[in-house]
Amino acid sequence: MLADQLFPPELLVHFHSEIGLDAKQTESIVAGIQEFHAQSEAKQEQLHQEAAKLAGLLKVERVENDAALAQFDKILNLEREIRRAHMAFVIGLKNKLSLEQQKKLQEIKKLHASGKLLSSLHTKMEAKLQEVQAGVEKWQNDGRDPSAIAETMQEFEPLMKAGKLRDAEALLDRALKHLSGDAKEK
After folding, report:
1. What is the DSSP letter of 22?
2. Which domain holds residue 149?
3. Residues sharing a CB contact under 8 Å with residue 99, sequence separation 6 or more, in sequence order
4. pTM, to two decimals
5. Are 68 and 26 in contact (CB under 8 A)?
6. Could you say which of 2, 35, 42, 146 has the lowest number of CB atoms within 10 Å?
7. How large is the average pLDDT for residues 81-109?
8. Torsion of Cα atoms, 125 then 19 then 119 then 127, to 10°
9. Domains of the chain: total
10. Beta carbons of 7 and 94 less than 8 angstroms apart
11. Angle at Cα 32 formed by Cα 30 and Cα 87, nearest 5°?
12. Do 107 and 120 belong together in one domain?
């Protein structure tokens, strides 16, 4: 229920352009993610060490009840600290977003949950691919050499097969920019 109101950091980073993050927001979010990960790794290591101590206490034939429970309490407290830090982190991320950006992310989350996000992304990419193909044909009909575009597009299929849809879309955008940029020069 709480997750519906908050946004995972990967979502903000992945869809930064779609939600209109400005440079200052992006820089702040990336710095926050890096700081959180560093703190989280340290806490996870501490948790691992405390769990190892508990395991040591439990290995003996007769377990010292009070010592084992005290160690277990340390583990629970660390887990609570980790969860609380995570909650503070994602709340902080949400607070860096405008209401409009939050609404766009909610839409993206709904599309993703329904499976429509991939479908809409494929549709958008298909349209861009057709646009690139039409641009290449126009260049050929005009007697221009489209080999630079063809060279760029060689990366497209491997990206798609690897499931790197955003990278594949960015490649299409570069090809389209190249096509339109060269058209303006002529």
Report:
1. -
2. 115-180
3. none
4. 0.60
5. no
6. 2
7. 93
8. -20
9. 2
10. yes
11. 125
12. no
